[in-house]
Amino acid sequence: MEKIKLFFRENLKKVLIICACFVAFLFVIIVSVLFIKSFDPSNNRILVYAKDGRSIIRIKDKERIISDTGAAGFRCDEKNKRVFFRVASASSQDLYDLYYVENKNGEITKPKLIDFGIKENYSVSDGKVYYLKINEHSRTSDGCVCDVSENKISVFSDNVSEIITLRDSERFYFTKMHSLNKVLYSFDNGEPKEICRDLLTCKAYNDCERPHIIFEKKSATDSSLIALYVAYSDALPQLISDSAVKVMLDEYEAGGNLYYMSCVSESIMWTSVISDNFASDDEKLQKPQRSAFSSFFSDSSDYNEKTDEYNKKLARDKIREALNQNLKNGSINVPLYTVFSYNSNGSTTVAVNVDPSRIYSFSHFGCPKLVYERTRASSSDTDISALAVIAESGEVENIVEYAQSVIKNSVKSYGVSLAVGSETDNKGYVCYPLSEYTASGTQFVFSADGSRLFAFVKGKESDKLNIYTNSLGVSMKPGEGKTISTDISAYKIKDDSIIYMKADAGKGSGDVFVFNENGNTRLSGGVGAFFLDSEKNIIVLKNYKSDENFSTVDLYLCNNGVENLIGSNVIESSYVFEKNGYAAFICNTDSCRRALCVSCKGKTVEISENVSDILLFV
Which residues are CB-neighbours of 504 under 8 A, at least 6 positions away? Predict the structure, then answer.
């Protein structure tokens, strides 16, 4: 024993160095293993798939089989590695019970019940679950929130119609009906707060840097107009406009330009198209008095003439009244609007005197701009006398319909133009003609960053398209139109570029090209179709095969002209992709095993076999 102690005293430094090296070696081994595992796409995603009639939840490299075959509606809390799902409730066929599992201590827990008797839709945000539950006494819906980490459920309001959540935010919104009035509330710091009444629409936008809601309500100044608001997750609601007549929510992409329209002060009056050539005379014309024209034996012929003239005046007045009434309710005039755009810089005017039916494209990002057809109304050959003649053999409603067609036909086109709003001056805008294009048969699309305009014109002898482009300078003035290609069969916009496909005549495949500031570049050949994944990577589909059950293709990741095989015999309808370039799909192998695969940046890993469906991929 003494000899051992003496050895350690004499060689302590060496022992410590050996121990340190051993610890460092173990550390390197552990880090290396983790580093190698991090390259396995299946270890970095949350996945739910169906197999043998059951659902399997996979979190990292661990799995849990859900025995209830009715499990559905899967949602994910990626931060806390939790997956939620619902099953049909035993209490009612229209209600559900809500469960979750989580990856805890390296294993996936058994399903845990959150609540029962909830409605079908629910949402997950900031580690909490939001749902509606039927109140057994009132039979209305209670708004509930569950803090899963604390296993705490709170009812934040009764009679809730809808819950609207924002990503990674404790503040959420909900709606309630007060009689026939829809009311929007926010819930923040434990307290509900009424935001507005007369709510028309409310939508949440989470896929952007600053999650937000956009909502519309009836304007306080005129119930026929729209008050438009935006509310970011970190700020109070902000009024965009109190006098909108139309909001282009369907054309809005989160974080980009939101276009809306307001009426101009002067719209097209029917009198500017249909001449009222009797207006001044009819205003002076009085009903004739019989006594002033009567003789002892018979009525005066002058009285008959004046009476006939007055009756014609009454007929014209009836037409005027009908036209003015239809003008007032907006059914007879040609709508002319001012188009505005709202983004992080505020609101700006984009174009004036615009007919909404003649807008052909909006720029989602960058400087606000749109392509539209400039129009102007001109006087017609029809006057009120002509309408009066027609009225003699018809109803006034028919005259109004005829006048409406005359007014619409009086609107003449002055060509397609590019309207650009100023990013620094909210009233500044400019309009550039696009004289090389016609509105008929042309489709206009802006590049994703708004720096380029593409025009697609249908070919004369086929259904294929010819592509043209105009670069937009610093002032957004369009450059001269340039031909990109002819006879294309498909295209996708990517940043400032366009990816397109030219199919070979008589074949079901073709070549894929990219056009950008450097010109045209061929990317791949023998392609049946292509698409862009969540990271704008180009995926091409080859070797298309089909039978009565399903279709399969080979998938290739195409970057800089280099193709990497992602998966062979991929069931076409199974492909789903998530952020950061991750994808999941099912391959129908030679032995018909239906293998589930996960891929990222060209690396593919097989996870399971005999898989029937992908239910969730995050």
Answer: 510, 511
Bridge partners, 491 (sequence order):
500
Please name the residues in contact with 196: beta carbons below 8 A apart, sequence gap of 6 or more. 183, 184, 215, 217, 227, 229, 237
Interval 275-329: pLDDT, tens: 888 888 888 888 877 666 665 555 567 778 888 888 888 888 888 888 887 776 6
Query: For residues 595 and 608, is the Cβ–Cβ distance under 8 A?
Result: yes
Beta strands 411-421; 429-433: pairing state: antiparallel
C-alpha distance from residue 49 to each of 1, 102, 123, 126, 571 (Å): 62, 16, 20, 25, 15
Stretches where the chain sits below pLDDT 50 are: 28-39, 266
Count other C-beta atoms under 10 Å from residue 266's C-beta: 9
Strands (E), 276-424: 337-343, 346-354, 359-362, 369-377, 411-421
> CB burial class (10 A; 0-12, 13-18, 19+) of residue 476?
buried
Q: How far is it, in rounded angstroms, from Cα 371 to Cα 427?
A: 18
Which residues share a beta bridge with 75?
Answer: 84
For residue 398, the SS3 value is: helix
Structure tokens at 286: 């009085």
Q: Which two tokens stand for residue 340?
A: 């505005």
Euclidean distance between CA atoms 531 and 266, whole angstroms: 46
